[in-house]
Amino acid sequence: MIGYFHTPVRKTYQLKVSKLHTLMIEECGVPFGIPVVFLHGGPGGSISEKSRRFFDPKRYRIILFDQRGCGASTPTRELKDNTVFHSVEDLEKIRKFLGIDRWIVFGGSYGSTLALTYAIMHPELVMALVLRGIFLGRQSDIDWMIEKGGASEFYPEEYEQFAQLIPETSRHQLVQSYFKMMTEGTAQERDEAAKRWAEWESGQVTLQPDFSGSPVALEWQKTIGLLEAAYFAHGFFPGKSDNFILDHAYQLQNIPMAIVHGRFDTICRPSGAYDLAKACPHARFSILEESSHASEAHMFRKLVEIMDDLALKFSD
């Protein structure tokens, strides 16, 4: 197992951010270190011990939390009041609750979507952006991952298994069909739909894909399947432009930024990372030739290197 820093949790909090949602927050590292907030992927993922390994606990004050409906936050799998814009509001509530003036924002996969949206809406509060596995939340990004003609071209056999759960007459709208099954089907149908969705997505996150799933991961599969399907079905930026991030990339021009993406990422297209880099020419842009979507060896080392560089920069 790859790891540079094995950091214990120093404090945990339960922060009520609305009448409905309460977030589980972890704080690690040194109390007066450089503040950094870690944003997990999904939507529907959660934080873990691995989430803390990118940051030197002797130099960083590390904040992690499970987003709405995820992990140890409650209520589990709640879709009401659960959008990227609600999570932007949550970040502000967490920052103020912890008495942090400005912080580094670190996000991977959907966490990069949330990080970018937050930075666009609050650029003055972001010391730096560190982004991995860029997902811009456009309809074309959704289609690439789920509908035929994108990731399916790399894993046709596995994609066929994924699509076969849906009646053939509805396979031209897999996102909507899966979401309907997860919300209107029987308990067995809901669980099977979430399991198939999660196995299709999580199976291709590494250079050595594994679509078999895990017998102990049903609760995680149900969460990431439902929340991803909900966000995909309703769009990532309700009421805003489909190209919200790139349309507002000018807001990021004064924020130090690192963009890291795997060449063989079949979930989030490298072209999306390149589009972001073109819109933010000041960013430090890295395509890693021996990486895919997850933080495997090369990706992990690169991210730790970036965080170590920022620690030196902001310690001066």
Short description:
With 316 residues, the protein is of the alpha/beta class.
Description:
The protein is an alpha/beta fold and 316 residues long. 38% of the residues lie in helices and 16% in strands. The chain has two domains: 208 residues, Alpha/Beta hydrolase fold, catalytic domain (Rossmann fold); 93 residues, no CATH class. The protein has ten helices and eight strands. Helix 4 packs antiparallel against helix 6 and helix 6 crosses helix 7. The radius of gyration is 19 Å and the shape is globular. The chain starts with 8 loop residues before the first strand and ends with a helix. 47% of the residues are buried. The model has no long low-confidence stretch (mean pLDDT 94).
Q: Any descriptors?
A:
alpha/beta, eight-stranded mixed β-sheet, globular, Rossmann fold
Topology:
Layout: E1 9-16, E2 22-29, E3 34-39, E4 60-65, H1 84-97, E5 103-108, H2 110-121, E6 126-132, H3 139-146, H4 156-163, H5 174-184, H6 187-202, H7 218-234, H8 244-247, E7 257-262, H9 270-279, E8 284-288, H10 297-315
Parallel strand pairs: 3-4, 3-5, 5-6, 6-7, 7-8
Antiparallel strand pairs: 1-2, 2-4
